[in-house]
Design goal:
globular, single chain, about 290 residues, Rhopdopsin 7-helix transmembrane proteins, mainly alpha
């Protein structure tokens, strides 16, 4: 239990530092900064939940209302994270297909509507799913609390988003590669355009570096929900509970990796982190 709490605290601190860095960072476009801040907040909430859940399980505390709230929070954070990743993929599509309209994403109304969407959609999904929950359970176990209908709601609202994210990112990488292949052999006199294409490719790869770990570490959870909904008899097995714990550990791992990915891939975040958090002047000037 102390190790689990330590891991949870580390995840919280990582993402709090990332939020502080993003607030101070001005080299990252506002829309992207909003999405990364949303993701960092949900990752910090995952760390808080993991720490709290570890302490509660260790002390064998149980209350039906507390159990429902606890799992509602983790379902909300997971859903909000998926919404944010979906929005990030949509932002890249706009950047690739509508480059002259991309700047409109940084306008205040668009950012407000995006922020509200990433909050309201998961709240609606969680509310709908847990309206079918079984509240007469002997212990706080997600697989007992969530009925087959609840699991179907989680699976069928999440898997289409995951499919969209996969398809859109594969498509964007292919478009970016085709743009470079088309322009590089005839780049004479088009240095500025070539630079923009390469910057777009870099942004697409940065988006993919965030999306790919998310998909690898989060998709199994929703496939598991779908399996448990189709085969409810499996929900009471010890192996199902063990699998659920492993899948939740993958969520925590993803929350721990995200700040590292941001710092590695985004120059502005790395420079701001070095300047304000580490109190060290970066090797290049913004």
């Amino acid at each position: 239990m102390p190790i689990q709490i330590l891991i949870g605290v580390c995840v919280i601190l990582e993402n709090v530092l990332t939020i502080v860095t993003l607030v101070k960072c001005r080299r990252v476009k506002n829309f992207l900064r909003l999405l990364l801040m949303n993701q960092s907040v949900t990752d910090a909430m995952i760390g808080i939940f993991f720490t709290y859940h570890s302490a509660v399980v260790y002390h064998h505390l149980y209350n039906t209302t507390e159990c429902l709230i606890r799992y509602s929070v983790v379902a909300f954070t997971s859903g909000a994270s998926l919404c944010t990743i979906t929005m990030l993929s949509m932002e890249r599509i706009v950047a690739v297909k509508l480059p002259y309209s991309h700047y409109k994403l940084n306008e205040t109304p668009v950012m407000i509507s995006t922020g509200v969407t990433t909050l309201v959609v998961p709240i609606c999904v969680v509310s709908s799913a847990y309206s079918f929950a079984d509240k007469n359970i002997p212990e706080c176990n997600f697989l007992l609390l969530a009925t087959s209908t609840s699991l179907f709601v989680f699976a069928f609202t999440s898997l289409p988003c995951i499919i969209f994210v996969i398809v859109s990112n594969v498509y964007m990488l292919n478009v970016a590669r085709q743009q470079i292949k088309r322009i590089v052999p005839n780049f004479v006199g088009r240095e500025k355009y070539l630079k923009e294409i390469k910057m777009n490719m870099k942004a697409t790869l940065t988006s993919a570096s965030v999306v790919v770990p998310f998909l690898i570490l989060n998709t199994p959870q929703y496939l598991f929900f779908l399996t448990m909904a189709i085969r409810p008899d499996l929900r009471y097995s010890h192996s199902a509970i063990t699998t659920l714990n492993i899948l939740f550990s993958l969520l925590v791992l993803n929350s721990a990796l995200n700040p590292i990915i941001y710092t590695w891939r985004v120059d502005g975040i790395r420079a701001t982190f070095m300047r304000y958090i580490c109190r060290k002047k970066p090797s290049f000037e913004p």
